Amino acid sequence: GLLYFTTRDEAQYCGNQLKTSIRVVFESQQNWFGKLHNHNLEIFFFSPSGESEQFAIASGFSESGSYSKVFTLDAKIAVDDISLKYTVEKFHSPWSASERLKIEDLTITNDNNSSSYWQLRAPDKYILSGTTEKLVKI
Fold it and tell me: What is the count of structural domains for the chain?
């Protein structure tokens, strides 16, 4: 669909509107216990001058699937140095094992309807919960 004009809640009030679309696949089938966890993905954008912004692009999910989010990135930060963070909120045992999530089809679309495609630097496309991984443009 179309992207629409947005403003930001704080200074800088102008920016570049972006839409992320991502498909995630759990390494193993989630049982009912695993579905009690909230899985979260945040995307980080970095500028060469050290500025950065982060946005939640999928939060509270517990199943494999496709997720999308629209947000406004500070106009001074380019879409070229990007990382992805995966966290899991566990409600029963905080010391249980880390979880792996496969990241597929990560697309970033700008307000000109131009898309760029990204993947994890890791060749197997998996990210471990509690880590932040670099993304590379494909």
Answer: 1
Please list the pLDDT of the chain residue by residue as tens digits (138 residues).
555 555 656 666 678 899 999 999 987 665 445 555 789 999 999 999 999 999 999 998 988 999 999 999 998 899 999 999 999 887 655 556 678 999 999 999 998 899 999 999 998 999 999 999 999 999
CATH code for position 93: 2.60.60.20
Four-point Cα dihedral 123, 126, 130, 135, nearest 10: 50
Range of the domain at 125: 15-137
Q: CB-hemisphere CA count at 13 Å for 22? A: 25
Residue pair 108/118 in contact by the 8 Å Cβ criterion = yes
Angle among Cα 8, 116, 55 to the nearest 5 degrees reads 35
Q: How far apart are CA 99 and CA 22, in angstroms?
A: 18
Q: Are the beta carbons of 120 and 103 closer than 8 angstroms?
A: yes
The model carries a pTM of 0.85
Query: Using CA atoms, how far apart are residues 70 and 2, in angstroms rounded to an integer?
Result: 11
Residue 5 lies in a domain: no
